[in-house]
Amino acid sequence: MQTIAKERISIAGNTSTEYNYQKLIEYRGGDPLSISDYSSPYSSRPAISLLLLRQALHLGGIDADFVYISCPNPGRSLAEVKKGHAIVYSSDMWEQDFDDSVYKTSPIIRRGEFQKGIYVKKGSPLLTSTNVEDDLKNKIPLVEHTWTIDIALLKSFGFKDMQTAPKYDLLFKMINRNRADFTILEFPRTNDLTLQDKTGDLYPIPNAKIVLPYSRHFMVSKINPQGKRVYEALEKGLEILRKNGTIERALRQSGVINDKVKNWKIAFKQGK
Questions:
Q1: Contact criterion met (CB below 8 Å) for 236 and 15
Q2: pLDDT tens digits, one per residue of 29-83
Q3: At the top level of its lineage, which domain of life is listed (predicted)?
Q4: CATH for 5-110+216-259, among 3.10.25.10, 3.50.50.60, 3.40.190.10, 3.40.50.2000?
Q5: What is the pTM of this model?
Q6: For the chain, what percentages of helix, strand and coil (3-state, to nearest 5) are there?
Q7: CA distance 64 to 58
């Protein structure tokens, strides 16, 4: 039997990712390496991403003992990895976030696979829209202020005026208080695709989705002395997980690739 090296791996990320990851493992029996069904109440994209990271490292020859470095926002987490304080970011990252200080693994989410819904408050006239692009032309979008990819994409669609929220949770409150008309968010695993929050739920405009035409990857520090070994182990493991269909199955079972919106029309299609 092959001996797998036990290794402490520092992970930068937020506490909710760590919580959902631990609850997901518990829900699925307690052993992250034996999980093959990725559906659960805790299967957020970051949690699934972290689980795939753990499984890929094992397949690449590292039995990882994660050490969490909790950060208040993605920007701080990125800085921890790029400075070498953490070996790897806890979740997949946009390809644009990488520079020469880090390794970029093969993609977890390939170009065209990452889709978002156009979310509005209950009772919004946009929920009955039959021509989404025209009806949104003079509306104000709301974006979390660190989501630079979303901001750039909305600008490319022609939205010059937009509101920003200092954190994700405030998106719900601000939309429901009419600070903006809509926001673009990942589809949840719920049957009706509603996003629930105590300050007010948000609802997707039916039959309309936005495709973000970029890929997402794991980010590994080049500065940290363990970085090269971790990167090489990840690449080996991810190749196996991609070839045997595990990555696609995980993305579908967790709702990252959401079959409920498979036939929805793409709004603001690139290059048309």
A1: no
A2: 999 999 999 999 999 999 999 999 999 999 999 999 999 999 988 889 999 999 9
A3: Bacteria
A4: 3.40.190.10
A5: 0.89
A6: 35, 25, 40
A7: 7
